[in-house]
Amino acid sequence: MFTLDSKSNQYSLIISFSVFLFYAINQSVPSGYSYGASLLLAASFFFLACRPALGLTAEDKTYLYALISFFAVAVFVCLLHGNPIRTLDMPSRFLLAIPIFLLLLKVPPRLPWFWAGVALGSYSVCGVALWQLHVLGMRDVQGLTNGVRFGGISTMFSVLCIAGLFWAQRENVKHVWLWRLALALGMVGAAYGSIMSGTRGAWISIPVVFVLFCIGSCNKHNIYRVGTVVVVLLAVVSAWYVAMPNNPVEKRYEQAVKDISNYVEKDNAKGSIGARFEIWRAATINIPQKPIFGWGVDEYRAQLEQQVASKELDPVVLTLAHTHNLYLATLVYQGIFGLLPILALFVFPFWFFCRRLLSDNRNVRVLAIAGGSQLAVFGILGASHTVLYRNDSLLFFFITLMTLWGCMKREEAGGSGR
Q1: pLDDT tens digits for 65-88?
Q2: In this predicted model, what pLDDT tens digit does every residue of 99-109 receive, in sequence order?
Q3: N or C: which end of the chain has fewer CB within 10 A?
């Protein structure tokens, strides 16, 4: 029988290194996100083979039910519509996330390893952005996979570094200022990668993240200090925006206004946003026809071709690789039964983390802020991209969510993550 007492140090080191590796090379090495995840998956199989006592709470089971439900619906829909077997590739990741979740619940990584991996990953994000812009001469940073997902993950790296600054206290680490410097540089580097990618969908989530940080970090003892930090940050951001005309944020805003104006006033769907509006319109037209279990993959393509031929839709809808909306894509191909588990993966964990924003334990609050922020960023980014249907963003979502949850549960139980 497996006992954590006898093997906790070995397991802790293996899991901590795997998590560190997952973040450190996530965006700077081809398929870098897969190495740490593969180590975690292998460790989780051995872990479960030892039949440990899991002791799951109702909150833990909610995660498991959502993951199992999504996979079950995907299998049913695949059989119902006669979809190609490859359509189960991504849903299978939801099933494989379960053993990793159970592992990280019982043996979460040591927090210094986690934050160190996040900091190094943030530097690599910045390095990729600098290389693509100034060496390759690219107009926008695309990362190694896709610009939108690179920008979303970069945003999360920056947010995690900010949370790490709150964690870097004397009770957690010896060299406080060294940790703060490392995380502050990571925050700036990852923010640079996000801005240069031009990922507007991730930027929209920043106000929600800001509120979560304020709720989790502000109390009657430090309200003036927090207020001062907020004012300084707003002043710095405003000064940067004014001092740098034609900065990437301003350019993206102006392009968005132009695309929306062309689509609404001139019925022109050629721009980036205009094309997304048109594919979203296609989805809203077709979803009501098959709302329960959605359309088959080939069937929906034929439907779009017919609607383009009849001039009901702009031909641009046939050129897009996907629906550019996680929720609409799920409704189109899996119906309401597929959407419910997706919503559950965002709504319930977000509530579980938010419940702990006022915890008496500082580390619990920090991890709750990070977890809630992760769900806010990916949940809002999902409105403009199918973030849970792509390997890099899906693995980042799962590993980060489960790592933060496991570490937070350990802190609540009085364990040490050092």
Answers
A1: 999 999 999 999 999 999 999 989
A2: 999 999 999 99
A3: N
Q: Please say whether the beta carbons of 54 and 106 come within 8 A.
A: yes
Are the CB atoms for 282 and 332 separated by under 8 Å? no
Write down how long the chain is: 418
209 or 252, which is more confident?
209
404: exposed, middle or buried (Cβ count in 10 Å: 0-12, 13-18, 19+): buried
Question: Positive or negative, the Cα torsion across 343, 146, 399, 416?
Answer: negative
Separation of alpha carbons 176 and 220, rounded Å: 24
H or E element in which residue 317 lies:
none
For residues 202 and 152, is the Cβ–Cβ distance under 8 A? yes
Residue 387 in tokens: 């973030």
> Both tokens of residue 407?
């570490």
Which is nearest to 294 in space by CA: 86, 92, 93, 73?
A: 73
Query: What's the CA gap between 325 and 386, in Å, rounded?
Result: 5
Q: Of 301, 275, 286, 299, which Cα lies nearest the Cα of 332?
A: 286
The full DSSP string for 111-165 is HHHHHHHHHHHHHHHHHHHHIIIIIS--SS--TTS-HHHHHHHHHHHHHHHHHHH
Half-sphere exposure of 404 (CA within 13 A, CB side): 30
Phi-psi sector, 2: left (phi>0), alpha (psi -120 to 50), beta: beta
